[in-house]
């Protein structure tokens, strides 16, 4: 299992999970720092969140997020519970049916006391013929399954070069449904990544070459325009008392997530 030197993101190999060669970042449960001054992020998702398509873990969107957090917080760590090939099904809260994966799901994520949860499920639900309405219901379960007060962000779907036009259209339908249901906590990536003049396929500039995953430029877009510039997400970082060295102001008076002690100003 690969682990990045000097990285504050870790994957879940010490949770007793199956080895995933694509996993880029992994936090053993015992390594989670209980210090409330540490800004903690948990990632849920599939292969894009694992880093597939990027030329290295550092150039994946999670790797770029890790690097950015090192510049805007005094200290941070992350837990990446993503699993290549996964749908939303195993990430739903405990008690869901069919049974979720208790080592990776939103319940497990919230037990790690994060300040922020990001979910990134680009296209596997459509690939697995899960209806859009069911996907949205799963996201509602995740949103409601975390501890009260933990900001929960999710990306839209992203394009994929399915052979069937109907499936490419379903990814667009899913993106629109996510926007309508979960704004303003949506990391909106669909339109920029989609070639609307080529049957809703991935733009060539962002395609890793397999028609499914994003290259470094695509990962950079998810992180940069989709994540780092998302005002609500920036506010979630600022509201913890994290040191912001960029041109953003700390959100005065923002309460910490429920159950978490007030963070010390950095």
Question: What tags apply to this protein structure?
Answer:
six-stranded parallel beta sheet; disordered N terminus; globular; disordered C terminus; alpha/beta; Rossmann fold
Tell me about this structure:
The chain has 266 residues and is α/β, with parallel strands linked by helices. It has a single domain, classed as Rossmann fold (3-Layer(aba) Sandwich), CATH 3.40.50.1110. 31% of the residues lie in helices and 11% in strands. The strands form two sheets. A six-stranded parallel sheet has the order 1-3-2-4-5-6, with helices on both faces. A two-stranded antiparallel ribbon has the order 7-8. Strand 7 and strand 8 form a beta hairpin. Helix 2 packs across helix 8 and helix 5 packs parallel to helix 6. The longest helix is centred in the middle third of the chain and has 18 residues. The two termini are 33 Å apart. The N terminus and C terminus are likely disordered.
